[in-house]
């Protein structure tokens, strides 16, 4: 399982038509296409600006009942509605079932309410000053698409709170819920339009449409290739069996009538995965060829990875190297040989045991090397900035996980640990000075890039250059320092053939 995270910085500004009640304590209201919304306000430490929050704005009619697999369409309402609290997240699947608690302890804090009625988005906007109001000031928008490997995720997670961005950087943050797993990617024979098998992607696009700008959807970066065989219904057929629908007159109706809890449980317990259907519209089957031909939306990018992306995944799957290879690279014997040679025990390079070997392997093939290859490619067409996130702050470590499966000593700069730094949503109580400084730097860099993507996000941050190897190393001293360095990409060659055929 891969948990992709991504933010898309919209490159244009929008006018957020807020009927400001400047100087008054009244709740902020806004008139949008769908109707009138009433939000709430907040403040963040260190900022004078007030933040207007509109949480749980309806994005589309609820996809429930017979509308379960409906394509998101604009919705509207006649009376003003309160948008003051997050709405439930979409139905989530945490696979395998045995790992349900562990995955949530790391990636879903606190555990949200779930519902099929989940298509809502959230806006965090700086309250305009009188001056800005009369200038008709416009703000750049940062659009946040949460990760979760298209199995789970929730725009309302506290670490994704956009208040600091809005208050301190004068940008608007929009985050959107989208459907995942079976509910977002129903590859079923009864749904004949391939694009309508990618509802989760359509939901994301609906969120972008809502922002009403001509922007690109999230880069399809380094996920495994989508299912490009239109008639491969392997997952659907397993689900039919597990839900005892295989002999029904209408198998589709049979599944539609099953309770959500049964559908969720079957996916977790029997490890049934639903992914995207390659339709060459929402998701293409030949992304690498298109990228190499420069056939993509030409906008500048920042992309980066953490130093120990794989530390969580390697733990999750134990320390048996053979089992790991059987799980991820079944029957790829040549690859296994090449990789194990490249990553043999070497204390100098941080490989002391099976676990540290697997942690490095997972970091490289799933995150680090794809970032290198992608940067090497995109820098030929668009300004491409790459970063590494290197540091581990004590208040971001998981000290109270129920068993010893992921000890604090090996967590490191784990997958997603840069997110609370970029959003400034880490726990302030025990934050270090270095942490606050680094958070300020990264948050500002992201915001400045949205304001002007033609300029380096930080002075002196050079583009990734030949071989994608020039990187800004955030936390290079293990604390808050950052510096431009040459990344060590030596082992990526071991992965090139595999990644290029299976993941691009
Ligand atoms: C909602 O949209 C429909 C279709 O455009 C329109 O007919 C209806 O009047 C709208 N309702 C409200 C309350 O705006
Ligand atoms: C397939 O579905 C998409 C999304 O609803 C729609 O835009 C497109 O027109 C449909 N294609 C056909 C051939 O009906
Ligand atoms: C697509 O999947 C079906 C079902 O597994 C299989 O019979 C068929 O051969 C596959 N088609 C291709 C082109 O691989
Ligand atoms: C469906 O039919 C097959 C073959 O007759 C049978 O083995 C299976 O038990 C049936 N499944 C259910 C849920 O009735
Ligand atoms: C998508 O494009 C690929 C590569 O060009 C092609 O093989 C595949 O048939 C296309 N699929 C659809 C659904 O258009
Ligand atoms: C570029 O993309 C367009 C549409 O997405 C497609 O029709 C075309 O075949 C692509 N060209 C190449 C060289 O991939
Ligand atoms: C390390 O992996 C090898 C190969 O799968 C396995 O035989 C061995 O038991 C593993 N050692 C530990 C401590 O897990
Ligand atoms: C494993 O790979 C070998 C050689 O490429 C092939 O003959 C065999 O059928 C594969 N086994 C499975 C189960 O895919
Ligand atoms: C923040 O950290 C302090 C000290 O470790 C702890 O008591 C508090 O519960 C934490 N707050 C949150 C929201 O996690
Ligand atoms: C947080 O800081 C306080 C005061 O400096 C200290 O007593 C406490 O042990 C710290 N807690 C953690 C979890 O680091
Ligand atoms: C970068 O791209 C060039 C040109 O395609 C290629 O020769 C080189 O091997 C690539 N390097 C990496 C690290 O992918
Ligand atoms: C995704 C994956 O490979 N999960 C495996 C991790 O290891 C457990 C056993 O501890 C297996 O049951 C899972 O299938």
UniProtKB/TrEMBL annotation:
PROSITE patterns: CARBOXYLESTERASE_B_2. It holds the Pfam family COesterase. Residues 28-217, 236-476 form the Carboxylesterase type B domain. Residues 1-19 form the signal peptide. One of its GO terms (molecular function) is carboxylic ester hydrolase activity. The keyword Signal applies. InterPro entries: AB_hydrolase_fold (IPR029058), AChE-related_enzymes (IPR050654), CarbesteraseB (IPR002018), Carboxylesterase_B_CS (IPR019819). Keywords: Hydrolase, Signal. The keyword tRNA processing does not apply. This is Alpha/beta-hydrolase.
């Amino acid at each position: 399982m891969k948990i992709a995270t991504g933010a898309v910085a919209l490159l244009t500004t929008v006018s957020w038509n807020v009927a400001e009640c400047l100087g008054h304590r009244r709740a902020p209201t806004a008139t949008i296409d769908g109707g009138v919304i009433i939000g709430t306000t907040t403040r963040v430490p260190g900022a004078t600006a007030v933040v207007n929050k509109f949480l749980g704005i309806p994005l589309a009619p609820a996809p429930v009942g017979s509308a379960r697999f409906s394509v998101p369409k604009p919705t509207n309402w006649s009376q003003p509605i309160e948008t003051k609290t997050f709405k439930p997240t979409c139905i989530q699947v945490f696979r395998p079932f045995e790992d349900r608690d562990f995955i949530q302890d790391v990636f879903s804090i606190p555990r949200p309410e779930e519902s099929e009625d989940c298509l809502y988005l959230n806006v965090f906007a700086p309250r305009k000053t009188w001056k800005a109001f009369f200038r008709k000031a416009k703000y750049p928008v940062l659009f946040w698409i949460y990760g979760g490997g298209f199995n789970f995720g929730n725009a309302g997670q506290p670490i994704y709170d956009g208040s600091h961005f809005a208050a301190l950087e004068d940008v608007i943050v929009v985050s959107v819920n989208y459907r995942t797993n079976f509910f977002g990617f129903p590859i079923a024979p009864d749904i004949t339009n391939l694009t309508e098998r990618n509802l989760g992607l359509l939901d994301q696009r609906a969120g972008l449409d809502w922002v009403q700008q001509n922007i690109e959807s999230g880069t399809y970066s380094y996920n495994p290739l989508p299912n490009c065989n239109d008639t491969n219904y392997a997952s659907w057929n397993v689900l039919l069996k597990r839900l005892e629908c295989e002999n029904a007159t209408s198998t589709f109706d049979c599944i539609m009538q099953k309770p959500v809890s049964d559908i969720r449980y079957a996916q977790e317990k029997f490890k049934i995965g639903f992914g995207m259907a390659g339709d060459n519209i929402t998701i293409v089957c030949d992304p690498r060829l298109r990228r190499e031909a420069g056939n993509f939306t030409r906008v500048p990018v920042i992309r980066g990875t953490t130093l120990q992306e794989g530390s969580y995944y390697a733990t999750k799957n134990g320390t048996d190297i053979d089992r790991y290879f059987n799980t991820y690279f079944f029957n790829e014997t040549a690859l296994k040989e090449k990789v194990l040679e490249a990553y043999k025990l070497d204390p100098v390079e941080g490989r002391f045991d099976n676990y540290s070997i697997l942690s490095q392997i997972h970091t490289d093939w799933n995150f680090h090397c794809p970032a290198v290859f992608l940067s090497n490619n995109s820098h030929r067409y668009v300004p491409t900035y790459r970063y590494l996130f290197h540091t581990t702050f004590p208040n971001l470590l998981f000290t109270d996980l129920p068993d010893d499966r992921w000890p604090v000593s090996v967590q490191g700069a784990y997958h997603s640990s840069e997110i609370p730094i970029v959003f400034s949503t880490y726990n302030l109580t025990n934050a270090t000075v270095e942490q606050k400084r680094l958070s300020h730097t990264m948050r500002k860099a992201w915001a400045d890039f949205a304001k002007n993507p033609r300029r380096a996000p930080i002075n002196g941050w050079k583009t990734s250059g030949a071989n994608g190897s020039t990187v800004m190393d955030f936390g290079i001293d293990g604390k808050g320092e950052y510096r431009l360095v040459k990344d060590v990409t030596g082992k990526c060659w071991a992965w090139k053939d595999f990644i290029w055929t299976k993941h691009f």
